[in-house]
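Worked example 3 (structure in, sequence out).
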């Protein structure tokens, strides 16, 4: 009976260990993040970034879900650079398994976590305040860690053969009230011009 309990316990521990692949969430000078087209020169922590995954072959960014309950990075004092850590364990992305992934970034003043800002991501578009952007889709990255036969290297989310090969841009999204005012101004100009 003791052997059976021990065997079952080891099986549960082993399957739990396989559920967490390892990633490196840091970009390089070749994959800089820009804000309105310029490498972000801002105090560290001004922007937040998160990893999103989907099955290989997914092409619609709206279908990607937050990886591992939330894997986050923030911008650094060095222009265009972000850092979330090396050797991060991602629950649900088993070592040796392949997932498509992308990175989303937003103004930290909007919220620190995706749970706080997801209300502004509607139908695949950002409708909230501040800055927002997302990377292209990396079609398939293999998570690192022990896969049952050997240790695989950590997956670099940026660079390498499986990571994102370019950075991406965060842009300001005008608030609806600003858009309404701009529309009113344009309409007024047209009416004024017609009367002349």
């Amino acid at each position: 009976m003791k052997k059976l309990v021990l065997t079952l316990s080891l099986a549960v521990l082993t399957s739990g260990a396989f559920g967490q692949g390892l990633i490196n969430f840091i970009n390089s000078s070749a994959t800089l993040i820009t804000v309105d087209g310029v490498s972000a020169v801002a105090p560290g922590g001004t922007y937040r970034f998160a990893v999103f995954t989907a099955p290989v072959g997914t092409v619609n960014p709206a279908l990607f879900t937050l990886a591992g309950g939330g894997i986050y990075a923030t911008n650094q004092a060095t222009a265009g650079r972000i850092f979330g850590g090396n050797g991060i364990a991602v629950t649900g992305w088993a070592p040796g398994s392949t997932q498509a992934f992308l990175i989303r970034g937003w103004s930290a003043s909007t919220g620190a976590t995706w749970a706080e800002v997801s209300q502004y991501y509607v139908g695949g578009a950002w409708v909230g305040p501040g800055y927002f952007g997302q990377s292209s889709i990396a079609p398939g990255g293999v998570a690192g860690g022990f896969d049952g036969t050997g240790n695989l290297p950590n997956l670099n989310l940026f660079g390498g053969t499986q990571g994102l090969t370019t950075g991406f841009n965060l842009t300001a999204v005008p608030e609806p009230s600003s858009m309404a005012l701009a529309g009113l101004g344009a309409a007024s100009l047209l009416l004024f011009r017609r009367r002349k």
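Notes: Residues 4-18, 177-184 have pLDDT under 50 and may be disordered. The longest strand covers residues 82-91.
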